[in-house]
Design a protein that fits this description.
By secondary structure, the chain is α/β, with parallel strands linked by helices. The chain is built from nine helices and five strands.
Length: 221
């Protein structure tokens, strides 16, 4: 149970390109809460290992990059590419890398920057491991073809070829499987998470649903 002055924490988890980042950012702007895209931390570590010529599945290489996290530029556009997503999911399977990033994430949630009244974190294990006491937990899903279409649109605009679509779809399937089947903090809905399926809903509808769940939860707090 949170104390009266503890910040409100909203955990938004789900598979790749499910729409969790868009939802989390929209909620944070609406509620004036701090927002952390935890995937960007794993992406930064993966990209750093790659650029240093290391192996993202090698613990020493990955841990060295994770320990340097404060030096990594989180606004590098290459962070968003699907190939960086693949590197991220490799370093993310290494328990010592996850442990290294845990304090940063928990500290963000407990002391939201800008002295905001709440924090919203999106990722894979926020509701299960990073913030198991979160005020509200959302688990965002969508079928994989829909998710691939969204990612293709994000990365290529409307002019993508079938081959480009297929490559993104294959990458998402591989990444989901790696994230779901790893031993350390796998992608999994917390028992008390609310499942939101965005396959046939636009962002506005999902946002309204999430906001209603939030208001309901706060009314009971
Ligand atoms: O944006 P997208 O959903 O494609 O991915 P992301 O949230 O940026 O996460 C990239 C990768 O980082 C994921 O595939 C996971 O392997 C890893 N990750 C994780 O293990 N735990 C988190 N809390 C967030 C991301």
């Amino acid at each position: 149970m949170s104390t009266m002055n503890a910040p409100v924490i909203i955990a938004v988890d789900g598979p790749a390109a499910s729409g969790k980042g868009t939802l989390a950012r929209k909620l944070a702007a609406h509620l004036d809460y701090a927002y952390l895209d935890t995937g960007s931390l794993y992406r930064a570590v993966g990209l750093q290992v790659f650029r240093a010529g290391g192996d993202p599945e090698n613990e020493q290489d990955a841990l060295k990059a994770a320990e340097k996290l404060p030096d990594i530029d989180l606004s590098d556009p290459e962070l968003k590419s699907e190939s960086t997503g693949g590197l991220a999911s490799k370093v993310a399977a290494i328990p010592s890398v996850r442990a290294c990033l845990l304090d940063f994430q928990r500290n963000f949630a407990r002391n939201p920057p800008g002295a905001k009244a709440g924090a919203i974190l999106d990722g894979r294990d926020i509701g299960t491991v990073v913030c198991p006491d979160a005020t509200l937990k959302l688990f965002i899903i969508a079928d994989v073809e829909t998710r691939a279409k969204r990612r293709v649109l994000e990365q290529y605009g409307t002019g993508a070829s079938d081959l480009e679509f297929q490559a993104i779809l294959d990458d998402l399937i591989q990444r989901d499987s790696r994230d779901t089947n790893r031993a350390s903090s796998p992608l999994k809905a917390a028992k008390n998470a609310h499942l939101l399926d965005t396959t046939n809903s636009d962002i506005e509808a999902v946002f309204e649903q999430a906001l209603a769940l939030f208001s309901n939860r706060m009314a009971k707090a």
